[in-house]
Give the backbone structure.
Amino acid sequence: MTEQRQQPADWQERQRALDISRSWIVQAPAGSGKTELLVQRILALLAIAESPEEILAITFTRKAAAEMKTRLLQALESAANPQQPMAAHAAETWRRARKVLARDRDRAWRLRQNPSRLQMMTIDSFCALLTRRMPWLSRFGDPPKVSDEPEELYLRAAEALLARLESGGPGENAIAVLLDHLDNRYTLLRDLLVTMLGRRDQWLRHLMAQRQRPARELLESGLRLYVASRLDHALNVIGLATYQRLCGVARYAAGNLAIVQSLQQPLAVFVDDGDMTGTLAHWQGLSHLVLTGAGTVRKTLNKTLGFPADKSDPAVAAKAEALDILETLRANPQAIEVFKALRHLPDTVYQENQWQVLQALIKLLPLAEVELQNIFCQQGAVDFIQIAGGARAALGTAAAPEDLLLQLDGVLRHVLVDEFQDTSYAQYDLLRCLTSGWQAGDGRSLFLVGDPMQSIYRFREAEVGLFLRVSRRGLDDLPIDRLILTTNFRSGETLVAWVNQHLQDLVPAQPDEVTGAVPFAPSIAYHADPKGVAISLHGFRDRQDEVEAAQVVELIRQAREVHPSGTIAVLVRSRSHLLKIIPSLQQAGLRYQAQDIDPLTDRPAIQDILSLVRALHHLGDRVAWLAILRAPWCGLTLTDLDRLCGRDGRKTIWELLTRTDDQIEMFDRISADGRQRLHRIMPILERALDQRGRISLRRLIESTWLALSGPACVSAADMKDVQQVMVLLEGLDNPLDAATLENRVAQLFAAPDPGAGSELQLMTIHRAKGLEFDTVILPGLGRGVRTREKALLRWLEHPKYELLLAPIPSYADSDPDPTYAFLGHVLQEKDALETLRLLYVAVTRARSRLHLLGHVRDSQDQPIKPASGSLLAEIWPSAEAAFTAGICSFETSPEPEAIPLPLRRLPAGWQPPSLPAPLAVRQDEIRLASETAHYDVQPQASLRTEEGRVIGTLVHGWLERIAGAGMQDWSPERIRAQEEAISRQLCVQGVPRYRLAACVRQVLEGLLTACTSERGQWLLTQHADAACELALNGVVDGQMVRAVVDRTFEDEGIRWVVDYKTSRPGAGESTADFLQQEVERYRPQLAAYAILVGRLYPDRMIRTALYFPMIDGWIVSDMEVS
Amino acid sequence: MQSELYAAARSGHLILTANDRLTRYLAREYDLAQQASGLSCWLRPQIFSFSGWLFRLHQQLPEPPHLLNKAQLQQVWEQIIEEDVQRNGNILLQVPQTAIRARQAHTLLLASAAEFDPSLSAEDQRAFLRWRKTWRQQAARHDWHDPAELPDRIASAIADGTLHLPEQVVLAGFDEIPPDLERVCRSLTSRGVPVSRWQPTAVDLSQPTRVDANDPEQEVTLCARWVRQILLQDPAARIGIVVPQLEAYQSLIEQIFTAQLAPQAFVAGEEARELFNVSLGHRLDDEGVVLAALRLLRLHRQLDQTDLTWLLTTPYTAGVHRESALRARLDRELRRRYRQHTWSLASLVKVVAALGKTTQSEVPAFHKILQNLVKEQQRSRKRLPGAWAEHFSNLLDQLGWPGERGLNSREYQAVGHFRQALTELASLDGIRKSLERAEAVSILSRLVAGTDFQPEGPEAPVQVLGLLESGGLSFDHLWVLGLHDTALPSLPRPNPFIPLPVQRRYRMSRCDAEREMAFADQAAHRLFSAAPQVILSWPHSDHGVNLRPSPYLADIPPDQPTVADTAAPATLIHDKQPVMEIIVDTQGPPLARRKPFSGGTTIIKDQALCPFRAFAHHRLRAEALDTPEPGIDNLSRGTLAHTVLELFWKEVGDLQTLHALDATQRSAAILRSVEAALSRLEAAQRSNLPDRQRQLEQERLDRVVQRWLTIEEKRQNFRVLGTEETFQVELGGLSIRTRIDRIDQLSDGSLAIIDYKTGRPDPTEWLTERITEPQLPIYALGQPRGKIGAVMCAVVRSRSDESGFRGLAKDPAAWPQAGSRTITQCFEEMGWTGLEDVLDYWQQALSNLGTAFARGDAVVDPIGYERACRYCDLTSLCRILEAAASEGRGGDD
Ligand code: SF4
């Protein structure tokens, strides 16, 4: 193919993009090779950088960051090869990478050895980095962890806030107002607050601003101005003359209606309005007069509209006049649009109760945020919004940009952002901060790449309007020029032409920051059509998923025939659209990779594990207990279950199974088969119950599942899924409640089939972004989506009219709320545009073959039409003909006769395999001679025992010190003078203040006794060859022993081995008894000491003794050793 | 043990090591060498970690400085930061963690003997300097010292000659000599003490082997099987596993190593500490027994349902042995009857006592626990930390912690550590003033969370270590795991409180990429020759993100290690692949008794929705635990509306009377009913509704009833004959007892049977093949045939546009109702002409359902997934998902 060498049509744009002295925003449509461009630009920057840390590349996902880094390193790798590659773009990259390598050598960066110097990360990681480096300014302190489940934190915050209703505190009245408004539905309000907290990056700044000013006036003036501007526009379109004529007709009609007394009518405003016109109500009245409910111009006018079938002249004339106006309007589509739009305009004032609710929200929502901060604080965990907020705060308050430099590894001079169309407002704001003070030509640059047509992350707050804003106005003071790439390297000519043709007219021609309307930029195919190119549309009359699924299978077969090694993707808008397709593929024997498609909650194997968790967690969870008795590893029949527990609804199943009185009778009742099954699993469950808390939840469940032979009951694919649940359980020890567990499991999906290649993949369109396939099949285009839930607050930030706000409508009343509805309408419009973009992303994944499948609704009285909100509805205007032409109907096949669900279970005589025996390893035990601890003794939390231990340690330490230094230096005065030091030592060791004095007294008493008594002096005085705390190791009875001898010395030919004990006789115990008991207790220890010391002094007579400094007690252990 | 070190140890030279682990290792090696040389007793060698040695020496100083312990230091710094934050009118999310980081900066500066200039630093660092200044002032005032000051104290004492000096010093296992150690060494040499360095000499070896794995899981599995292979052949082998990012790998290693090395123990839920040891500990508060202690201490005043369930099910309290089943039952009852999301301890005690009596399931020990908690609640004055520590330990004793079952070794050690944490709390007496209870609990929790728990066990042949701890150790076999490109060299993590240039100048650890690389060079050099056999491995991807191999692997070709067959129990059990038994089991035993079966109309409803559901709910009494919601939940709201209307009509009686009431009288009557209904609910729940919620609910009910009455007003004359009448019906072989919400006598003398609904009922469901809304049909069957004039749902909702009557009537026009058109359609389809036909149909259909239930029919046959199963609590028991799964996913191949 000779075309390979030819320059793409937009090569000049691409060259300009590498001009690193300027900042660019690049509009890069699907297939335009933007990653390559980014890599080339980074290479260009690296070639002149002082340090690699000067350059920061921000990607949308971690995966993308890793890929970009790999691409860059590959470029450097291949540049190490002196041979220039043949292909033009590869040569360009190679040349640039060579320059970087030279720089790398010069500056000793060792980039290839230390690639972590390349700063490529997601915006979240970058924010996290900033907060890590600026703990004080970000107000985080040491970085908190980012919670995987922020919803749980929002929930706690919302509950804490709502608790103020009863406990009092700021916001209590606001809560009452809202609850009343929501028909006193506490949990509804809570859940709405939770949703709001998850989007607080959007409303918080607005609401904080509202608190500082006369909010109502300003907000209403925004509404007024907005409405006024729409009305002006309407008047312009319709023309004053027509308008006045219409008003005349309306007044006539209103007069008639007034007579029949239905003033709840939109036209009521025209009654006695004294010729005052032009208000919103007037306009809406006219709209009602002109348009039918379906939005077409009325053809007839009847008495309900104020035109009674009256044959009088004025009546006939008025009706004729009206019909005449309608006739002119019918020919004016723009006017029709205007009248339609009028229906959705907001009120210009807030109704009193509406305002009250809004006020309550303005008060309450910021308080919710404060509660959330408290929760973050308690949990040491935050969400991504908070991280971004922290980063933003740190950047915003850093006194000077220099501060930032001190904190980052180098001067940040160049920032590159990929997928800029999916930037949220918060991220945009951060970027502004980061580049504040940057100017054209100062050696710093910004490089933003994205495709506004591929902005599909509105649900994650992506705001495509920002792309438009920056490409129009730059970023604050920094001018940013716009480049538009047009070459599509991915799809062949036919496909590119199809996309151009079908989307061009659908996308609004005028960009609009508010709705995110992006004009379409057509692409030029770089490659001619590959072999087997095809585009097909398959329409279905009414939804029948099975038939669509069969068609999908057929298309896959065809694609395989045409292009056996080609890749195929089945892309859907929502994973539930694959529900019927997956079984069809399996029946057809087609293996596929599917990620995050197949939810684990619905797997029986997983349900069994959850039952096990719940049963072990709660003996009273009867469903769970019965479920584990019915699960395949046990498989009790219904009859046996009934015999077991049908008579007693109160006792727990475990009681019924184990309490002997019932048990004997119960085991008589159930079948022999049931008995055998129960006997297999009961010991396992008993052990598991005993291990609760002792081992982690994961280990508990996993080991129990293994012991129950769980793995024998499931498929190989299930094994992987189970593993995922086990990993999930690992993080869930504390605190476990069933709802949390179920929520978490609901977020797990079956692992992709490891045996399937990448030739056939199923995924959502969102996931497919950035990928390409030879064949793309898009089923389910006719299916709509769930409508948006109502939010507590709707808002719109308008470039001209600032903020438009509306609170949620009442749940207790049915009054309409036009302002809320208006904002909803704008949101809908945004959604519609996004849906169209989603379709664009989907169709542009294809290299050569594209198949669209979707159904339309066919009802008798209406033309066939796809469901509103469906992808098909979006391209309907341009695809209608093609779809209707190929539409196929089908017979509904009768439901197959249901066969009852069988019970699958292990055979009664099942024996699990025997597992490999424990490994034999060499074990050298080392024993401490003083080791007495034994855990069969029940420990207590009591601290008094601890105190005794501390005193003992201190006395030992001091006696060592005294004896070591020579006890002649230690007069009683000097010892007493240590009071302060001793007191501190005790304190450090955790003796509470009010016990200090008593403990100090004891220590001193012990020391003084030892230093003043005759026995003590004899012990401590400087003997021949004396030692304190003598550490000896050796072998006793074939076992390695380590010992520390408190005091040993020689006196009169005897080697004394003495151990200090700080215990004392209990109340009423005689000293002699006490001493005797103690010596018995420590005899083994003393014996070991004697043996060891005896080996050091083989020719000495050894005597061992205990000394009790507290009571000057002394007892010789009469065992003697040679 | 290598000979030169052995010789040094035997001559009593001082050996200073990089960490405690190496100290233990060398001491043990020495002992084994001594034993091997035939000795039976010897002096313990002078082997200490640097910090351990400093600490010992410090006690020999003539005037030992008063060192604060870790907990004390932490508190001091926390307070300093807290006060600074407040003074600046700021917030700081994580004060305790910040204190740790700031102290670390302080220590780093001390160790490097470095200072920096505030004017050259960022605001974060100036904040740190402020804190440090305050610390210094406070330390001087109280004569407090930080252990980090010790090196310089000791160094000068050595230089002064105040300390007894060792003959020679050997530094063992340091990859780098930290600057403070270097200063101490300089003092030593200045006094003529020779200082030398020792690292195990590189083994003569062939090149290390490189193993490429798909992901960490496969990597660890290979490694474990490799270990297994070695130990099978050589039980005396010593194996090292070094993991640069040990934290990320810890749990994988613990799982997979246990499974592969000790499969039987794995299945028994036991550990294999005698086989392998991971140098990283666990958080102490991950131990069940400790967690329980903290949780017990946190219970105070208010318990939410989660807390309560925990308290009732935890094995760590008194009386569990006798009461565990009773407590589980109690929890079920509490949830079912009282529906309280949050309990106050006081009312809980009462309810538990009362419930125990009525259900003959008394739980005296639990009752005692609650009483103790109530008493605790009254003692809320401030105390010193030490007093709290003691108080907590007494409270735990009273509650019976740590429970009645014996502790195993791990738990025993954990309890010991917990007690240690309590003494640490007590040690704050000199640092903190009196504390609130909550504050004391939170400090204790943090102390516990900060405690690293590593249960002691026997010396294991397999040592799993981090990079730092592996210095100085040698092995027969070594595997280095997880060598991807951000693990070695790792990403820099400079301390944010010291300016980077300063950190670079002093070469502080982890400060930048160059520093990391220098460290990685050293470590790689040492590790790759630390054993005769060295294996280096890396995973291609982790959690879907592609990784690259560490640059240190670049030149080594990948290879396959020799590994043992898998011993993982999961695989072995799965591979045994039994032939599963498949049986049809859709029938339970028939009902024995003929007396009324409890469950009411729900039985029929369930039977209609799905026979299995009826069997499980009503025969097996399988019902999910109720989960109370905060606020007044939907069920209670429904009940309240019911009750209000019941009471209202009891008082008012008929439509005429209603008309006769003027607005005030009507309002008063409504108010009385609302008030009475609320009180009835409160009596049933044995606790009053919270004031404001009660107020709001009262207003709501008032509004709802007002609106509802405007609907009733539109009806033709009627008289309310009865409300909540109980009666019994026979349906096939089943007899049930039930209650009718309301019966009206209409103007023509016929009866209207009325059921209040607060949801959105659909009367067409009465007319389908399975009657899934059978209440009203059943009620109708219980009435004399000819007298029925209407069967109606009274849909009472807050919004008046959603309220009205829905149902069947002889004279539909007399009822302000919505949605009757579909019913007419049904009539046409079924060829019915009037109510009589419907009643015939009901008789037939309901009897069929009753018979099926009495027979024990229990086939899993839901009327539709959406309608029957989505909100059914039995999905796990009926195994309906197997139907979906066998369709969704093929067999095993
Ligand atoms: S989940 Fe469905 S199939 Fe199972 S018992 Fe409930 S209704 Fe029946």
